[in-house]
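ESCALATION

Customer reports they have been waiting on this structure for their group meeting. Please prioritize. Original submission:
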Amino acid sequence: MSKITKEDYKNFKKDCQYWLREFGLQGWFQSITKDGLDDCYGEVWWDNNKRVLEISLNVKHEFKNEKEKKEFLKRTAVHECLEVLVGSSLERIMKEWKLMKYKPIEDEIIFEEERHNIIRVLENLLYNKEIKNEFFY
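Update from on-call: job pushed to the front of the queue and completed.
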């Protein structure tokens, strides 16, 4: 079994910073942390008004081998950065709809599912392209 090392975490942070820059989110205050999350690989929180985001990596996760760990870290970095890109945009759209008196989306489960559908498509496109090219370290 392979665990996440300090070097792995350092590389994860670099990958997150790369994707945040590529997605045009470099103007946000960024915090990339490690945590002992129980039910997910990583998570992200953001505040659109303050332009603040925090990405947390689950460092408790164990892997069969180094290859699996490397892929996990790269894919998680892409996924969490896409969460900010897509989620913050959709959040702004929803707020505008409510302000403009359009019918608000009442079922947040549908919103979450659709947000993740968009993220998965983008994640697969970006992740597969970059991994094939061995773009990172």
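Sent to customer with the following note: DSSP finds three helices and three strands in the chain.
Escalation resolved.
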